[in-house]
Amino acid sequence: MSMDMTYFEEMEAKIPTGGVRTRFAPSPTGYMHVGNLRTALYTYLIARHAGGTFILRIEDTDQGRLVEGATDVIYKTMAECGLTHDEGPDIGGPVAPYIQSQRRDTYKKYAELLIHRGHAYRCFCKDGEGDHVNDLGDGLTVKRHICGCGLLTQEDIQARLDAGESYVIRQRMPFEGTTTFHDAIYGDITVKNEQLEDQILLKTDGLPTYNFANVIDDHLMGITHVVRGSEYLSSAPKYNLLYEGFGWQVPTYVHCSPVMRDQHNKMSKRHGDPSYEDLKAQGFLTEAILNYVALLGWSPRGDIAEEEVFSLEELVKVFDTAGISKSPAIFDIEKLTHFNALYLRAMGAEDFAKLAEPYIRQSVKNPAIDAARVAGLLQARCEKLTEIPEKVDFFDALPDYERDLFVNKKAKTTLEVSAEMLNAAISALEALPEWTEERVHGALINLAEQLGVKNATLMWPVRIAAAGKTVTPGGAVEICAILGREETVRRLRLGLEKVGA
Ligand code: GLU
To answer: Does any ligand 1 atom lie closer than 6 A to the CB of residue 228?
Structure first.
């Protein structure tokens, strides 16, 4: 039977050629997991490194699993991370639409074409009919669908269609032989065809399965490198047979190893592992997250093998698939925290202050306390922005502290010594002609010298009285300078009362 090929010729003519084209193809079924973000990043980097095109495609054919708002999270995350796409549902492109639910017609036509070419058939089996589990020995089982539908004559098929019977379209797998495909990370992989199921390509509702839609779209969108998680590795032979069935060129496969929470388990939202949004809410910077995620399964080689800090622009320059590892990567929040601290420290003081201010203001409401100066104390001592409110709350209100805090062996302070130091400090600070950090510093250093004590013997009680805690960002001088004279003196007097003088 002949088939009108005009549609297919027109579709083929639209396929962009020349240059690397990659796609990130998320299903809007939840939030952006760390593994998803890594796939998006690697996909972006492979395209940009080659001066190619990066495409966003939304895979929403599994309507039952869609989660409201998930597509917005994808757009927002990609934009925040700077993973800008050149073609996609929101901006269009030469091979639009880029949302699978809007491409139903195309999949249907290509499924018919595959039937025509002998690599697929209509299957009229009802639920579960014809499904077998084959035992291959050694505990290995495979699902196979075995039925007679693939052998029906054209007349039989027509009669069933006329009777309004519902059907799916299945891929016709060869029973014998092997299929080999190449993956850029995992090398050559060969499977026996007898292990491949006659998988469903088009469901009874006319919607494609992911397994069919991804092949059709990757071909029609001119995708040269298919980057995705290794959970798809076992399906790749089936995809290969689809490409072969259509007579299309197979793209380069880049399957990435899973991101694990520990040696045995993949990261999962269900087990409370953080998504990109969660990490942001926990106070991590986008740049630090991206940098760390880039290194989850990829390592720089050659001259830069020892380096670990990379901006997105630098990654575009140095990223190569040869550096991607086959071994699963373990997500380590400590390591991410380390990156975050590096990024916070490397920022300009003003940028840091801008970022830190809302966190400072969560606990420091008093407008007389200069948030930018508080930020200056924090920058070198902060690993995550969310640590800030608790670190600086004493600026707003002196905590109710125990007088034992004044006793410190190293600083050589007892309650008596502290009383003496606080008394002297109050007089010296009250007498200052002007309240600047330099003046406060000069006055206290001079005072220690006059009293013949180590600086620490004076600074410890002043800091305890000023902050009411032993661990503070900044020392006594910096804290007093920010508090102002009146509040400093008030707090030192309270301290004096506490030590019982
Ligand atoms: N929609 C699939 C997923 O979200 C994409 C797999 C692929 O990139 O081919 O897992």
So the answer is: yes
HEC per residue, 142-205: EEEECCCHHHCCHHHHHHHHHCCCCCEEEECCCCCCEEEEEECCCEEEEEEHHHCCCCEEECCC
* Helix/strand/coil (H/E/C) assignment for every residue in 404-442: HHHCECCCCECHHHHHHHHHHHHHHHHCCCCCCHHHHHH
204-246 pLDDT, tens digit each: 999 999 999 999 999 999 999 999 999 999 999 999 999 999 9
Q: What DSSP character marks residue 369?
A: S
pLDDT the model gives residue 64: 82
Condensed to tens digits (0 to 9), the pLDDT of residues 132-149 reads 887 777 777 777 888 999
The β-bridge relationship of strands 259-260 and 252-256 is: unpaired
Flag whether pLDDT at 178 surpasses 80: yes
Given 143, 269, 365, 412, the catalytic residue:
269
Of 2, 78, 84, 80, residue with least CA distance to 37: 78
Assign residue 470 a region (left: φ > 0; alpha: ψ between -120 and 50; beta: otherwise): alpha
Ligand 1 pocket, residue 457 CB under 6 Å: no
Contacts for 5-14: CB closer than 8 Å, 24+ residues apart: 7/109, 8/109, 8/110, 8/113, 11/106, 11/220, 14/94, 14/95, 14/220
Known catalytic residue: 269? yes
Place of tokens 């139903």: 104
Dmax over CA atoms of the chain, in Å, equals: 111
My answer on whether omega of the bond before 97 falls inside 30° of 0, hence cis, is yes
Distance of alpha carbon 261 from alpha carbon 263, whole angstroms: 7
Q: Are 307 and 300 in contact (CB under 8 A)?
A: yes
Whose tokens are 């991206």? That residue is 290
Closest CA to 235 of 264, 270, 201: 201
Question: How many CB atoms are located within 10 Å of the residue 442 CB?
Answer: 14
pLDDT at 360 over 80: yes
State in Å: Cα 202 to ligand 1 middle.
17
58 CA distance to ligand 1 centroid (A)? 9
